[in-house]
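Batch job 17 of 40 flagged for manual review because the log was empty.
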Amino acid sequence: MSEIEDSKQNNLDYSRSKSNLSESKVAGNQSGRDNNITNNITNNIINHPPESTMSSLYKELEVENSENKSLKNKVNDLEYYLTEAQYNVGRTLEEKLIDGGRQSDVKLATIQKERANKKLHRHSTKISAQKIYVFILSKLHNDFRTYISPLIEQDYDKSMVEERISDKVIEPMIEFLESNKLELNHDDIRGLIYLLTGDCHLEWTVYADLSSDI
C-alpha cells in the first residue's frame, strides 16, 4: 500500500472512532438525564404524597392555636350530632343499653360518654377542631350503621358484636386520626359512640327504628 493510501486509511479509521465515541457520549448523557428525571418524579411522589383531609385540618388547628383564636358557636354539622335526632323517641342512653341487653355496660358507658363529651367541648373553641369532630362523628355513625346495626338487628351474640365494634369501628378510627392531634384514645372513641347513642343517632336494640333524618 502506498503512503498516500495508508494515510487515507488512517484518517478514515480515526473519523470512525471519533464518531463512535461521540455517539456513545450522547447516548450515555441521554440515559442519565432520563434517569434523573424519573428519579426526581419518583422522589417527589414518595416524599410529597397528597395531603389527607385530616392532615390539612391538623395544620389549620396548629395555626388557630398559635394565633389563640377561639369561638363560641358550633358548625352546623357538629351541632347536628350533638342534638337529639328528629326521630328521637325520648329514651336515655341507659334505657337504650338496657333494652339492648347491656345492663352491665351502663355505668362505664355513662362515664365514657361524659368524658368524651367534655373533651369534645374543650376542643370545640377552635373551628378546625370542630371540623375534625364532624369527620369523626360522621365516620363513627356510618361505620356503626354499616357493620354493627345489621348484627344487632339479627340479634347476634354480644361478644360477636363487641368484636366487630373493635375491628370495624374503633380500630379503623384510631388509624383515621393519623397523628391524632386531639389525643383521642380508644375509650374516647367508644365514649363518642355512646354520645351518638344518647342523642338517638345510634340504637342497640333489635326492634329499634333505625331510620335516619340525614
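Reviewer: the log was empty due to a logging misconfiguration, but the result itself is present. The mean pLDDT is 79. Unflagging and moving on to job 18.
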